[in-house]
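Q: What changes when cobalt (II) ion is included in the input?
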Amino acid sequence: MKFPIKRTRKYLQDYAFGPITLHTVDDFKFMAKIGRIAAETLDFIAPHVEPGISTAELDRLIHEYMTDQATIPATVGYHGYRHASCISVNHVAVHGIPSETKILKNGDIVNIDVTPRLDGPDHWHGDTSRMYMVGDNIPVKARRLIEATKKSLKAGIAAAQPGNRLGDIGIACGQVATDYGYSIATDFCGHGIGLTFHDNPEVIHVEPEDMGPILLPGMIFTIEPILNIGKPDVKTLDDGWTVVTRDRKLSAQAEHTVGITEDGLIIFTKSTTS
Ligand code: MF3
Ligand code: CO
Ligand code: CO
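A: The predicted holo structure follows.
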């Protein structure tokens, strides 16, 4: 792996939407560390995602786990958000707010999204989410949606190769959704990440108008497609955060943080157990 020796802010000539940071080998080491903790946070919470638990209780457990690992939930205080995770149940597409009154029940499907960051000056971020099934009575259509969502993320990751264009990721993610007869919620996208939580580039999950920049070693970003069984349209509720599908049909999401290398990519948030 060859990288720039110093962190550089490289202004890509063919990219109109802002500079993209090309990170160093040392940066990648920090990202591997925080990415592993992010993945382990999602592993840790899995056995707790059971009928009868509130999403606020899950959030408390997640917060405690992150603190125990010498990390800080980057979402706390982020644009006024107050929780360690986003927990999005059934037709909630993204940014579900943990709540004492939201009790999980058998048959629910749930996305849990976490972004721990390392404590101290090297405050690198790891951002990941996955789907959980609550109990043993998951409808076939919900299982199929989760399967498609995983495949969409996987296809996006496979397309994130040095030399490809950013837009190749969107084409790959979108194709899987189309093959299943689902839509992608295009109001949300992946993002550059590192010392900053949300950075350039924007990673869209459908075929873009502009294929965007060539993927170069040192780029770090998330891929996080949201697939809807029904229409792609979503809206934000009055709480200012919770995003639901307009048709109230099921939605699912999966997210990894990845880094482009000389000869491929690293999935920083890959779980070793799931
Ligand atoms: N983790 C989310 C993402 O994938 C962002 C959550 S921001 C919050 O980008 F404030 F809603 F937590
Ligand atoms: Co993200
Ligand atoms: Co996230």
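Observations recorded in class: Residues 127, 191, 222, 224, 255 surround cobalt (II) ion (ligand 2) (CB under 6 Å).
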